[in-house]
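4.2 Preliminary Data

To establish feasibility before requesting continued support, the project team ran the inverse folding procedure on a target of 780 residues. The structure was first converted into the token representation described in Section 3, and no sequence information of any kind was made available to the design step. The complete token record follows.
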């Protein structure tokens, strides 16, 4: 067989494969006719819903081909003896010609995905044919017949398909994988809810409008009910309010189960975090709070699951009016109508015409809102320097500490009248705030790709925070909102003047059962790879999106080397941990390794791991570590309700966690002292240089306190932005995580060493200009 004829054969074969693959996914078995394959194309194309969205083609890089060795056929040279030898000399010189003129159909369906896999399979198939010293007899004869004109190009297709399925086993089950990852009708996942006719009531209104109050009143009046909230604090609040009203209510969160019945029997009412709600237990009334979070990129799936799956006669949803139209449309797919109740804000709040500009202008009832802990540290220190006390609340604090700080701020007899907080105050805490002051309008955010970026806060976020001013139940009946800096005030007014963007999509997340079915078809894939393939192949209706799974994949990759069964691995990877904390990640890894050895994680084991008992914090670094330890104990409790036999000492862990909460509360109460200690340990090398030049190293201010890197000295707008922690490059690098305190200290030593050398060199240089008697040498 000539080289040109061989080239022509493979060119025709690739064009044929391209046309077949571009039309449909693989549904042809090896040896079946191309006509049957083409018939399957019609069936596949009809199976695509007309209302489905048009996603990007799946990522073929997720599918790693199986390596095959080009070994000689057991048939020997039988094929050559029956026909003629195939001329494959110098065939690689014709690669460019073989690929020219081949174009794939760039349709938006799954077919492009299969076409790309076929392209890789064709290259592998061609390479194998060329590298094998002797081909199987049947393949040799077919190739010879086609080159001689006695066969059709279709005749080689079954052999190519056989090779393609050897290197890409998933091609043989592509239809099954597509069915498993079909997320277009999530309402059908909940047959118990679809078996009853539910009444959906939407309580719509802004913050502090009483919408949740009316829903809870119906919840308390029902024979049975479930409250689903976004935070543990909200679940605790409803739990306590319900029991105080004489309605027995249990508490269920990821880390806690509290039954009011002494025998442990479930009550008719339960308050839970939304991820923990049961979609199989029947209730008379269900309350879903903060329904606008259904569009959250990470947690939106939990609201979708609750709304579609709760088996309750009445579903009361509470949230922003921007979600009304979308919830109506979503309920239309289940055949359920939505009754809307709208509410107005009970107390007004006004946007002031002037910014705060200086911390000297603070008044009792003020709350400064920051979007980073470092800003909280800086501002709280500056407030303390003015002789004022302040409470501090941020997201990573334990719930008990948050409540303690809120109680301190709300207490009219406590001298603490100022609050410094992150947007964690937007939900779950009842605070007596007169004026909200935005320290900045820019906060770190995670986009749809899981990438972090700095963005101006949205109208919804601004309203959620600003709405905390002048609460109906507080002593301040009217609220005020402003900014710290003059330049930000018109931006805030512009943000609040806009209406909230309407909600258009709801989040979804692959379940453990779906991933298990995927693993059955792809047994060699890692969990992270399975989830990637699932999302890549998934088909969603235009009303839905697949939630960000980066945190899940991060944990899956972390414990991939640990031998765990798929279900246990999946559960571990859904654990809510802060991956920014190295100690928490290390603990997670140790928990998984101990679990894989089938060795229970006892109280003594945990105490050794966290070095319990722990002393009170001496600086901010110690406080951050205590917060991480608290998160580790939370992780233990979370896992203990999924693997009770392997995490048996829940009661003891909860006891030391309460003790740890008290230690953290003590640290937060003395946070300014911790900041001063941190300033002493991590000094600013640039500031040190300036002080050394002026001869005032370690000098004190008028109050006898060491001058702080955080203090502004009462300056206004520009002074606050350029002073304190933000005034030095080194401090900003530490704040942004680009420089560690240890590395900063090392740089300080090197700086001092270089300064000493420079001083010595200058002294020697100056000395060289003088003679022994101290007179200047004359130049020659």
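Position-by-position output of the design step:
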């Amino acid at each position: 067989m000539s080289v040109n004829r061989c080239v022509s054969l493979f060119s025709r074969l690739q064009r044929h494969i391209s046309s077949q693959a571009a039309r449909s996914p693989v549904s042809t078995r090896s040896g079946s006719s191309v006509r049957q394959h083409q018939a399957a194309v019609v069936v596949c194309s009809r199976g695509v819903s007309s209302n489905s969205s048009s996603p990007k083609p799946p990522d073929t890089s997720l599918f790693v081909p199986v390596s095959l060795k080009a070994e000689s056929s057991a048939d020997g040279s039988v094929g050559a003896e029956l026909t003629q030898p195939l001329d494959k000399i110098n065939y690689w010189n014709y690669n460019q010609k073989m690929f020219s003129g081949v174009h794939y159909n760039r349709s938006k369906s799954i077919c492009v995905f299969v076409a790309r896999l076929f392209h890789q399979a064709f290259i592998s198939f061609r390479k194998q044919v060329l590298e094998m010293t002797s081909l199987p007899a049947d393949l040799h004869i077919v190739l010879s017949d086609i080159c001689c004109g006695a066969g059709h190009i279709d005749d080689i297709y079954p052999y190519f398909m056989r090779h393609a399925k050897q290197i890409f086993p998933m091609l043989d089950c592509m239809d099954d994988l597509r069915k498993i990852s079909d997320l277009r009708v999530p309402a059908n996942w909940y047959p118990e809810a679809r078996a009853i006719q539910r009444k959906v009531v939407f309580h719509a209104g802004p913050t502090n409008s009483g919408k949740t109050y009316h829903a809870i009143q119906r919840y308390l009046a029902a024979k049975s009910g479930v409250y689903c909230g976004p935070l543990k604090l909200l679940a605790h609040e409803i739990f306590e309010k319900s029991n105080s009203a004489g309605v027995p209510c249990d508490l269920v969160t990821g880390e806690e189960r509290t039954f009011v019945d002494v025998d442990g029997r479930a009550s008719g009412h339960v308050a839970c975090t939304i991820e923990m709600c049961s979609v199989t237990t029947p209730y008379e009334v269900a309350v879903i709070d903060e329904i606008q979070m259904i569009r959250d990129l990470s947690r939106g799936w939990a609201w979708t699951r609750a709304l579609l799956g709760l088996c309750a006669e009445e579903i009361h949803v509470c949230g922003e009016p921007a979600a009304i139209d979308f919830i109506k449309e979503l309920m239309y797919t289940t055949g359920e109508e939505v009754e809307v109740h709208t509410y107005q804000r009970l107390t007004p709040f006004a946007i002031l015409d002037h910014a705060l500009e200086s911390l000297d202008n603070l008044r009792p009832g003020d709350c400064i809102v920051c979007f980073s802990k470092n800003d909280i540290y800086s501002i709280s220190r500056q407030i303390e320097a003015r002789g004022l006390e302040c409470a501090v609340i941020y997201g990573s604090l334990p719930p008990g500490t948050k409540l303690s700080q809120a109680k301190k701020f709300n207490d009219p007899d406590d001298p603490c009248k100022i609050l410094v907080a992150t947007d964690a105050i937007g939900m779950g805490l009842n605070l007596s705030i007169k004026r909200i002051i935005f320290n900045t309008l820019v906060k770190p955010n995670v986009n749809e790709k899981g990438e972090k970026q700095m963005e101006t806060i949205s109208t919804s976020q601004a309203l959620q925070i600003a709405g905390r001013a002048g609460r109906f139940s507080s002593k301040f009946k009217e609220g005020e909102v402003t900014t710290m800096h003059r330049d930000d005030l018109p931006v805030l007014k512009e943000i609040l003047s806009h209406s909230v963007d309407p909600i258009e999509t709801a989040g979804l997340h692959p379940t453990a059962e779906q991933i298990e079915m995927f693993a059955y078809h792809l047994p060699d894939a890692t969990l992270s790879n399975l989830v990637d393939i699932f999302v890549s192949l998934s088909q969603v209706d235009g009303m839905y999106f697949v939630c960000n799974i980066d945190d899940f994949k991060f944990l899956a990759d972390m414990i991939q080397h640990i031998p765990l069964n798929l279900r246990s691995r999946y559960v571990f990877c859904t654990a809510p941990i802060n991956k920014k904390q190295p100690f928490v990640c290390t603990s997670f890894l140790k928990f998984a390794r101990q679990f894989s050895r089938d060795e229970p994680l006892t109280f003594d084991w945990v105490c050794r791991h966290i070095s319990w008992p722990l002393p009170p914090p001496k600086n901010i670094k110690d406080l951050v570590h205590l917060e991480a330890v608290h998160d580790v104990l939370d992780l233990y409790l979370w896992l203990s309700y999924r693997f009770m036999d392997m995490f048996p000492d829940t009661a003891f862990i909860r006891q030391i966690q309460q003790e740890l909460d008290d230690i953290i509360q003590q640290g937060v109460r003395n946070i300014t002292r911790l900041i001063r200690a941190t300033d002493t340990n991590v000094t600013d090398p640039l500031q040190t240089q300036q002080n050394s030049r002026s001869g005032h190293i370690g000098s004190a201010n008028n109050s006898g306190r060491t001058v702080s890197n955080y203090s502004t000295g009462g300056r206004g707008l520009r002074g606050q932005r350029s002073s304190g922690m933000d005034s030095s490059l080194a401090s900003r690098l530490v704040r942004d995580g680009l420089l560690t305190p240890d590395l900063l200290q090392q740089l300080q030593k090197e700086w001092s060493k270089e300064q000493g050398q420079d001083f010595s060199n200058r002294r020697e240089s100056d000395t060289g200009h003088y003679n022994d008697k101290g007179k200047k040498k004359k130049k020659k």
